[in-house]
Amino acid sequence: MEKIALITGASSGFGKAIAEKFAAAKWNCIITGRREEKILALATELTEKYGIKILPLVFDVQNKTQVFNQLSNLPEEWQAIDLLVNNAGLALGRDSFEKADLADWETMIDTNVKGVMYVTKAILPFLIERKKGQIINIGSTAGKEVYKDGNAYCASKHAVDALSKSMRIDLLPYQIKVTVIHPGAALTEFSKVRFKGDESKAGLVYEGYQALEAIDVADICFYAATLPAHVCINEIVVTCLAQANSFYLQK
Ligand code: NDP
Ligand code: 8X3
Asked: Is the pTM here over 0.70, yes or no?
């Protein structure tokens, strides 16, 4: 039977790699992001390469109206979602608490926390109706330990950790699996976004060691989503070999 995955933040990084991984395994995918040209290009590429169906959706996860308009009204053939990957997210800035920008904080909370809540709420009725499905939330090692100048980003990822635990309890009666994956430093557009386009600052983050790559996280996501029906991975923390946790990175 054909399976359906909904992956937020599929225009780059982890989300794009996750979409390709599932498409290669013949899952039909709903892929979302704000950058329309990237989402449409990926939809064409995956359809042509793997002969599966892709539903590309363009919306901002911060925008409650957009999220509910797009996801609550999915075409019927797309409502039987087997897997939601709440991946869309970002960090903005890395400054101490007193210097950090309030607007950046709000964007991180609105995207990383409220975005996960909106998207999950919007599609949950489809999972509950079928009494099956899985939600995989992308957290971070920043959601396990707070690091200096990480303030709101770390808080947002701690919230993703807490939401994941809470979802797992509340959704028990519906046989919905909830998994949270907490990656450490990974080479994606993440640092370019965090440092607002400053490529040299972003490059420094990954200098002197071999960081995780998007495919590493996609492989783990696929593994967690393809276990027997009675097995649920609650949580995975994954770093590259050079990283022990949020603080210790051997360069
Ligand atoms: P990227 O910047 O490469 O990808 C982020 C994705 O999120 C993009 O597709 C972007 O799409 C989407 N996105 C961001 N904001 C919004 C929004 N408001 N509405 C809809 N989509 C949005 O970074 P990563 O792949 O690294 O990040 C993916 C997730 O992994 C994030 O939650 C991040 O916090 C987390 N993470 C990253 C780590 C890393 O070191 N790279 C480590 C641990 C966790 P678009 O811009 O088109 O909207
Ligand atoms: C991204 C990893 O260490 O830059 O979540 O916060 S880190």
From this structure: yes
